[in-house]
């Protein structure tokens, strides 16, 4: 297993528990320590964490994030840390990534999402597990109050790091934490929020099952990242709206689904554009005009939140001047009919292509040109995926 460890009390406790769990089964736990670089002392803290873990026989790696400052700093930092750890899990072949969120974190998440107007799915809080591209993310401590984890560290004689941002009133979560006034995580407010999250999670699981059943009879999802949708089989009820929202998130490459009101307005029309996805003639695909600009084409490059490049070349000079971007309307029109696979022009225009000097040298989803592979791996994950 891999374990995300910040040096704080809860992730340190998780590292100890995970290491013992793995050792008892003939395996091992590797701690992934992310140096976010947001404070001057972050590098020293990462080094301290690695030394502390080594003293307990736990191997670790320090991953440097280098996150730029700007708005939504904490949210971007969380997303950046998770992405870095998942990438390392993929590189090392470790299929499990453990994170140390506990019951107090769950309560804060539910409260935070409620204030932002989240729907029932969001109010279920963090999932105890979810599948990402590189690993399954596990949060085994969600049912435990932080006071229990602190007690474990005291018994072990460990004094953890304390992140000052956890009490910084500039951050919404710190304000919510102070408002709950329950540092131990055992009070009635936290308990009520935890019960609410569990109830919404059960509702979410039921909704996921209903959505999956509905899509099974209405959807054909193509490997080139587009879909055929039978509007009559989809229906127009709440399950249909949830299914359509999940499909729009998937095909757009966005992390989140579009607003519920917008989805409900689109559903009875059976066509239109929303969330960067075009719905026309029973076909849903990425809107060509909404595709992201090209990115440098290196192995592992992610483009448009949907396609990850798997290059087969070995010489570094092969990457020079090579870009990954949309095939576009002109590129689609230039394709011989024999290689189009009967795909609509609007689908072809949104496919990824490798460009050099204004020439498309490869269209990976069609197996055309250079022998390069690209995987449809949308940022938001599978059709029913929650954070």
Automatic annotation (TrEMBL):
Reactions accelerated catalytically: cytidine(34) in tRNA(Ile2) + L-lysine + ATP = lysidine(34) in tRNA(Ile2) + AMP + diphosphate + H(+)
Keywords assigned: ATP-binding, Cytoplasm, Ligase, Nucleotide-binding, tRNA processing
Major localisation: cytoplasm
Subcellular localization: Cytoplasm
ATP-binding recorded as keyword: yes
GO molecular function terms noted in the UniProt entry: ATP binding; tRNA(Ile)-lysidine synthase activity
EC number: 6.3.4.19
Domain tRNA(Ile)-lysidine/2-thiocytidine synthase N-terminal: 2-178
Enzyme class label: ligase
One Pfam family recorded for the sequence: ATP_bind_3
UniProt cross-references to InterPro entries, sorted A to Z: Rossmann-like_a/b/a_fold (IPR014729), TilS/TtcA_N (IPR011063), tRNA_Ile_lys_synt (IPR012094), tRNA_Ile_lys_synt_N (IPR012795)
Gene Ontology, cellular component aspect: cytoplasm
Biological process according to GO: tRNA modification
Classification via SUPFAM superfamilies: Adenine nucleotide alpha hydrolases-like
Top-rank lineage group of the source organism: Bacteria
Function recorded in the entry: Ligates lysine onto the cytidine present at position 34 of the AUA codon-specific tRNA(Ile) that contains the anticodon CAU, in an ATP-dependent manner. Cytidine is converted to lysidine, thus changing the amino acid specificity of the tRNA from methionine to isoleucine.
Record family assignment: Belongs to the tRNA(Ile)-lysidine synthase family.
Entry-linked NCBIfam families: lysidine_TilS_N
UniProt name for this protein: tRNA(Ile)-lysidine synthase
Species annotation: Teichococcus aestuarii
């Amino acid at each position: 297993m891999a374990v995300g460890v910040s040096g704080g009390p809860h992730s340190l406790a998780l590292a100890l528990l995970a290491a013992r769990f793995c050792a008892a089964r003939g395996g091992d736990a590797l701690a992934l320590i992310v140096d976010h670089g947001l404070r001057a002392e972050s590098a020293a803290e990462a080094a301290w964490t690695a030394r502390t873990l080594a003293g307990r026989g736990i191997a670790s790696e320090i991953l440097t994030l280098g996150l730029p400052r700007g708005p939504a700093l904490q949210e971007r930092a969380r997303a950046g840390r998770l992405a870095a750890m998942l990438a390392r899990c993929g590189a090392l072949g470790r299929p499990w990534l453990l994170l140390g969120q506990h019951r107090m974190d769950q309560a804060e998440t539910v409260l935070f999402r409620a204030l932002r107007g989240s729907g029932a799915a969001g109010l279920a809080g963090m999932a105890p597990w979810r599948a990402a591209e590189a690993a399954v993310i596990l949060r085994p401590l969600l049912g435990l109050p932080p006071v229990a984890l602190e007690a474990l560290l005291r018994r072990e004689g460990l004094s953890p790091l304390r992140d000052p941002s956890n009490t910084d009133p500039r951050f919404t979560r710190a304000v919510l934490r102070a408002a709950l006034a329950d540092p131990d995580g055992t009070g009635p407010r936290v308990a009520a929020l935890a019960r609410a999250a569990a109830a919404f999670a059960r509702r979410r699981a039921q909704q996921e099952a209903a959505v999956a059943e509905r899509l099974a009879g209405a959807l054909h999802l193509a490997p080139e990242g587009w879909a055929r949708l039978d509007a009559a089989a989809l229906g127009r009820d709440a399950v249909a709206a949830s299914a359509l929202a999940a499909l729009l998130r998937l095909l757009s490459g966005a992390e989140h689904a579009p607003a519920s009101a917008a989805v409900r307005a689109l559903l009875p029309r059976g066509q239109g554009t929303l969330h960067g996805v075009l719905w026309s003639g029973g076909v849903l695909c990425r809107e060509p005009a909404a595709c992201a600009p090209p990115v440098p084409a290196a192995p592992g490059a992610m483009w448009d939140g949907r396609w990850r490049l798997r290059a087969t070349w070995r010489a570094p000079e092969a990457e020079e001047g090579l870009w990954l971007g949309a095939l576009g309307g002109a590129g689609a029109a230039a394709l011989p009919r024999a290689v189009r696979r009967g795909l609509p022009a609007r689908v072809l225009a949104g496919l990824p292509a490798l460009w050099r000097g204004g020439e498309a040298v490869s269209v990976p989803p069609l197996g055309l040109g250079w022998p390069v592979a690209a995987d449809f791996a949308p940022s938001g994950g599978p059709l029913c995926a929650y954070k």
